[in-house]
Amino acid sequence: MSTSHAVVVGGGIAGLSAARVLARSGVRVTVLEGSPRIGGKLRVSEIAGIPVDEGAEAMLARRPEGLDLVDELGRGDDLVHPGTTSSAIYSRGALRRFPAGQVMGVPADLRALAASRVLSPAGLARVPLDLVLPETPHGDDVSVASFIGARLGREVVDRLVEPLLGGVYAGRADLLSFEATLPGVAAAARTNRSLIGAVRGVRDAAPTNQGPVFATLPGGLGALPQLVADDVVAAGGTVRTGATVRELRRRDGGWRLTIGPTRDPEYLDADAVVIAVPAAPASRLLAAEVPAAARQLAGIEYASMAIVTLAYRTSAFPRLPKGSGYLVPAVESDPRRGGKGVKAVTFSSIKWPHLRDGDPDVIAVRCSIGRFGEERTLQRSDAELAAIARAELAATCGVTEAPAESRVSRWGGGLPQYNVGHADRVAAIRAAVAAEPGLAVAGAAYDGLGVPACIASARAAATRILDDLCSREGAEQ
């Protein structure tokens, strides 16, 4: 396949991972990234002299794809793991430990749930009704709030499930798909009348010693895209930035891509194309040749968010935090406590002890602001968003000193929403794309937002392209 040319549109971790598989398989690869930098939502920069991620800060260590990629790049021994994953939730006026025995907020241990005091007495009393209620019908996909609320009550949704899903999708439980966002729980619920019983089964089936939950690189997860890009180039590929693809059309058994401004277009021909950009630009590129996929992609909504990173001296904290951070349910976003808009706080220097090696006197804190539908909050200035984050830490941690440095990272339209019907939508996209030889899609819009899921998506796309190219070459011989 050395004569075949594949173009990957998008230089995020999915696009780069797909390009790496193709290049390592002998395909001539060109990666086209429209922005001035590669990496997509993975980016790291220094604050107060410490490298702290501006986007995703870790990858799941219990999925193999991310760890395998780092190992293949020769950096497996460099991986670091959290010093603590103990987290809390702000509920009913106080920070409270997350109850033990839960899966994405769905409780399995009612004693632990009661001891956590996350729920009100009325909300707690509602939960065990799940054990005696008739089975909830399993028909078409429903929202997380609809199914879990019917089984366990609305408080479990608002104060446990939605905050955890908000940390992943920045979404709303009333809109997010139960099947797409909680697939393991949804599958177990299909064979168990009680949701509590289903979650207990999920926990019982999990390995007893799964090892660390998360992993990252010492220089930040934002360092990973460049490592992959360097490997692509070493295998003979090309990685271009500032190369926006405006149009994709069929041509002579392959594809023609139009790049750059309309007044001075550049044309690039390819035998195969992997589209690894968010849903909206992917929809525009596919509109002419694969309209069925384009229509479905246009229906995937995105949430925007911002991450405010604050670097404090240790003396700013009356007591150093013990856990990795805490979540703030949407129902607790009360302007009277100065925390409006903050949905999650991560004590990065506590969660990742290696960050304190450079300067033990600095504590880096990341505050996530913005949920789906809260675009007005994100229209505020950087100074205003930083003030919101500082007020949050003053209210919950007693931090009144000014930070030594602050940074605001904005991710407009950064998180795809896996709303009700998402699985059917993705199946329709894939079916339409599969009908077109030499074309594949990859990225966070389809089967998972995390880094390992994006890598898995990329490898599946690359495998499809390789199969198509092999079939084509075989037919020509």
TrEMBL record:
Coiled coil: none annotated. It holds the Pfam family Amino_oxidase. It is an enzyme of class 1 (oxidoreductase). Its cofactor is FAD. Its EC number is 1.3.3.15. Residues 13-466 form the Amine oxidase domain. Its main location: cytoplasm. It catalyses: coproporphyrinogen III + 3 O2 = coproporphyrin III + 3 H2O2. It comes from the Bacteria. Pathway: Porphyrin-containing compound metabolism; protoheme biosynthesis. SUPFAM superfamilies: FAD-linked reductases, C-terminal domain (SSF54373), FAD/NAD(P)-binding domain (SSF51905). It is found in: Cytoplasm. Keywords: Cytoplasm, FAD, Flavoprotein, Heme biosynthesis, Oxidoreductase. Belongs to the protoporphyrinogen/coproporphyrinogen oxidase family. Coproporphyrinogen III oxidase subfamily. Involved in coproporphyrin-dependent heme b biosynthesis. Catalyzes the oxidation of coproporphyrinogen III to coproporphyrin III. NCBIfam families: proto_IX_ox (TIGR00562). This is Coproporphyrinogen III oxidase. The gene is hemG_2.
